[in-house]
Design goal:
This protein is mainly α. Helix content is 54%, strand content 6%. The protein starts with 8 loop residues before the first strand and ends in a 6-residue tail after the last helix. The model has no long low-confidence stretch (mean pLDDT 96). Bound molecules: tryptophanyl-5'AMP. The site of tryptophanyl-5'AMP (TYM) has 26 residues, from strand 1, helix 1 and helix 7.
Length: 341
């Protein structure tokens, strides 16, 4: 089956396992909005709550974080009338298809996932079975919609390769051309936003230091303070981006500046090359506050009415299931499961 046989459709997801960060915004949300606004794709976006519980979540916190993530999607520019926005557990097809994929994926494939190795660490005997099977559920998220494109940050690349492997093995084993071989979309200057305390580590909601990240709920003063205190080297900014090769903290701040202001990294260097940190950091903080403050305000406004968020998620789940249910039914049929008539 050629690519043209599949509706151009985007799927992507975010775990509601804590507050979202600037990394989630630049690496994912902002690009989700761009793909929605391009108008060439049907877009399906999801709070992956079933993924979140592969490590312990406090139930009330999980519900709050799921609503907060939904508010962040909308505040960032996702229009629930144009895109489908919902939480994963409301569309049971994800878990059902994931079971089929658990029988397709091999233990060896899962064991090689770096995220599994990082999260399970030396204590893998004690990690949940769900954490090990996590990438099969992720493949189900994507393939339940026959999604052709998946925008993500750099850290999800290996999981998307595994999704392609699962689709290819299913198609091969059952001698069908049923699942698309999905394209990862990992583009732009901020596919890997780094910690503000250590330029070799990814910015993450699970980092113990709050100073390492910008949260989407941070107020203007906190954002400014975090950028001003961000770790850097003593050298001023060079004239060209290439000269930042071995300066991870400096490069990270330039990448963030470019992504937030929607210009290329070369344009940032042309304007700020030669500047010291005393000049560049306040300018970066200004750009960040300008961009993020309205979003935080809008998130707070939306969070004041959780009933409305739940209504949007419920409606989105209904629309999601209209796409996923027939794909799951066809999958069951291919596999040889008898369906009720
Ligand atoms: P998660 O929840 O860790 O992150 C959500 C999205 O944000 C991106 N991201 C970043 N991008 C740039 N710099 C960073 N520091 C940074 N931190 C996070 C991630 O790459 C991701 O795009 N397994 C996925 C969730 C998932 C999913 C899916 C994604 C489940 N099913 C299906 C796509 C399609 C995850 O844990 O993302």
């Amino acid at each position: 089956m050629t690519d043209a046989a599949f509706t151009p459709r985007v799927f992507s997801g975010i775990q509601p396992s804590g507050g979202l960060t600037l990394g989630n915004y630049l690496g994912a949300l902002k690009r989700f909005v761009e793909m929605q606004d391009a108008g060439t794709f049907e877009c399906v976006y999801c709070m992956v709550d079933l993924h979140a519980i592969t490590v312990w979540q406090d139930p009330e916190e999980l519900r709050k974080n799921t609503r907060e993530a939904a508010a962040a999607f909308i505040a960032a520019g996702i229009d629930p009338a144009r895109s489908i926005l919902f939480n994963q557990s409301q569309a049971p097809e994800h878990a059902q298809l994931a079971w089929i994929f658990n029988t397709v994926a091999r233990m060896g494939w899962m064991g090689r996932m770096t995220q599994w190795k990082d999260k399970a660490g030396k204590n893998s005997e004690n990690a949940s079975l769900g954490l090990f099977a996590y990438p099969a559920l992720m493949a189900a998220d994507i393939l339940a919609y026959h999604a052709t494109h998946v925008p993500v940050g750099e850290d999800q690349k290996q999981h998307l390769e595994l999704t392609r492997d699962i689709a290819a093995k299913f198609n091969h084993d059952y001698d069908v051309d049923f699942f698309p071989i999905t394209e990862p979309v990992i583009e732009g200057p901020a596919t890997r936003v780094m910690s503000l305390r250590d330029g070799t580590k990814k910015m993450s909601k699970s980092d113990p230091s709050d100073m390492s990240r910008i949260n989407l709920t941070d107020d203007a003063d906190t954002i400014s303070k975090k950028f001003k205190k961000a770790r850097t080297d003593p050298e001023p900014l060079p004239e060209t981006y290439a000269e930042l090769k071995d300066r991870p903290e400096a490069r990270n701040l330039v990448d963030i500046f470019a992504a937030l202001s929607g210009v290329s990294t070369d344009a940032v260097m042309a304007e700020h090359g030669g500047a010291g940190w005393g000049q560049f950091k306040p300018r970066l903080a200004e750009v960040a506050v300008e961009k993020m403050a309205p979003m935080t305000d809008e998130m707070n406004r939306l969070m004041a009415d959780p009933g409305e968020i739940d209504r949007i998620l419920g409606e989105g789940a209904g629309r999601a299931r209209e796409i996923a249910a027939p794909i799951l039914a066809k999958t069951y049929d291919i596999v040889g499961l008898i369906a009720s008539k």
